From TrEMBL:
Gene3D superfamilies: Ribosomal protein S18. One of its GO terms (molecular function) is structural constituent of ribosome. This is Small ribosomal subunit protein bS18m. Keywords: Ribonucleoprotein, Ribosomal protein. Belongs to the bacterial ribosomal protein bS18 family.
Length: 171
C-alpha cells in the first residue's frame, strides 16, 4: 500500500528519479491521504446512530456529553410513524365519491367519532378523491343523511331477525 501510493504520486509529479529526496514528502502525503480516508468514514453504523436520542445534522452545534452513550441508555428508542396505506379504496373499486353521497354506511367510515372528516393520512385516499369525499360528506350532511356532530353507527335494530350473533331463522 505504501509503495503503491508513493509510486503513483511519484509518477504523477515526475519524482521517480528523485524518490529518496522526496521520501519525507511522500510519507506526509500518505498520512494525509490516510487521515482523509479515515475521516470520511463514519465510526458508527446505522444501529449505533439510532440508539442516540436525537439525530445530529451537519453543521449542528452539540456538547461533548451529547455523544456519551450513557445519557441515552434509559431513554426509549425513537418511534417511527407507520406510513398510511397506499390503497385508494375508491380508485381500487372504480367508484366516484361524489356519486356515493347517498351511501351513509360508506361515508361514515371516513368520519371521526366527533363527526369530523378524517384526514388524508388516515384515509389513504388520493388528494383528488379526498376532495371529492369531503364534498360528498358535506352534501350528505346538507341533505340530512348523516349527522354533522357525531359518527353514525349502523343501527342493528333496523334489520329484522338480527339478535347479535347472526340471523335467526326460527321466527
Amino acid at each position: 500500500m505504501i509503495f503503491s501510493i508513493q509510486s503513483t504520486f511519484a509518477k504523477k509529479f515526475g519524482l521517480l528519479k528523485t524518490l529518496p529526496q522526496h521520501f519525507q514528502t511522500l510519507v506526509s502525503v500518505q498520512r494525509y491521504i490516510q487521515i482523509r480516508h479515515d475521516s470520511s468514514q463514519t465510526p458508527f453504523n446505522e444501529d449505533e446512530i439510532r440508539k442516540f436520542g436525537r439525530n445530529f445534522r451537519s453543521g449542528e452545534i452539540y456538547a461533548p456529553h451529547d455523544l456519551n452513550e450513557e445519557n441515552y441508555k434509559d431513554k426509549k428508542p425513537l418511534r417511527f410513524r407507520k406510513p398510511p396505506p397506499n390503497v385508494d379504496v375508491f380508485k381500487r373499486l372504480n367508484l366516484n365519491p361524489l356519486v356515493e353521497y347517498k351511501n351513509f354506511n360508506l361515508l361514515s367510515n371516513f368520519v371521526s367519532d366527533m363527526g369530523r372528516i378524517l384526514p388524508r393520512k388516515k384515509t389513504g385516499l388520493t388528494a383528488k378523491n379526498q376532495r371529492k369525499l369531503a364534498k360528498a360528506i358535506k352534501r350528505a350532511r346538507s341533505f340530512g343523511l348523516i349527522p354533522s356532530t357525531y359518527r353514525r353507527q349502523i343501527e342493528l335494530d333496523f334489520f329484522p331477525g338480527y339478535r347479535g350473533g347472526g340471523f335467526d331463522n326460527r321466527s
